[in-house]
Amino acid sequence: MFCSNCGSSVAEGTAFCPVCGARVARGVAGPAQPPAAAPVAYVPVTPAFNYATWGTRAVGYIIDALLVSAGMALLYVALGTVLTGLAGLGGRYPGGGMYY
Fold first, then answer.
1. Residue 23: Cβ-neighbour burial (10 angstroms; 0-12, 13-18, 19+)
2. Is the pTM of this model over 0.85?
3. Residue 65: domain span
4. Of 5, 27, 59, 99, which is most buried by a Cβ count within 10 Å?
5. How many structural domains does the chain have?
6. Within a domain: residue 19?
7. CA quadruple 54, 56, 59, 63: dihedral positive or negative?
8. Rounded distance, CA 14 to CA 19, Å?
């Protein structure tokens, strides 16, 4: 006997399908074979947007490289200033004092 909902095999005398949980009618035999799946038609999928060409990707790469290098330069200067100040190496004269 087969489930009329999902088509899986169900033992005789079972009230519910063990796969999908649908109620199985007692005394009424299901179809001899499980229901055949309908064939799926192939439909080509076209993207909703156009992908970037190699030229626009190259320009984007150059812009990204410039932005990252500018950010790293700012980070280098900021950290260099802080670390030299903490180490006592900053200033115009060694030791931070003035020479007369």
1. exposed
2. no
3. 54-92
4. 5
5. 2
6. yes
7. negative
8. 12
Do the domain assignments include residue 6?
Answer: yes
The answer to the question of residue 99 being in a domain is no
Q: What is the pLDDT of residues 62-85, one digit of tens each?
A: 999 999 999 999 999 999 888 887
First to last CA, the chain: 107
Among residues 39, 37, 2, which one has the least CA distance to residue 17?
2
At residue 96, the pLDDT reads 53
- Whole-number Cα distances in Å, 41 to 38, 44: 9, 10
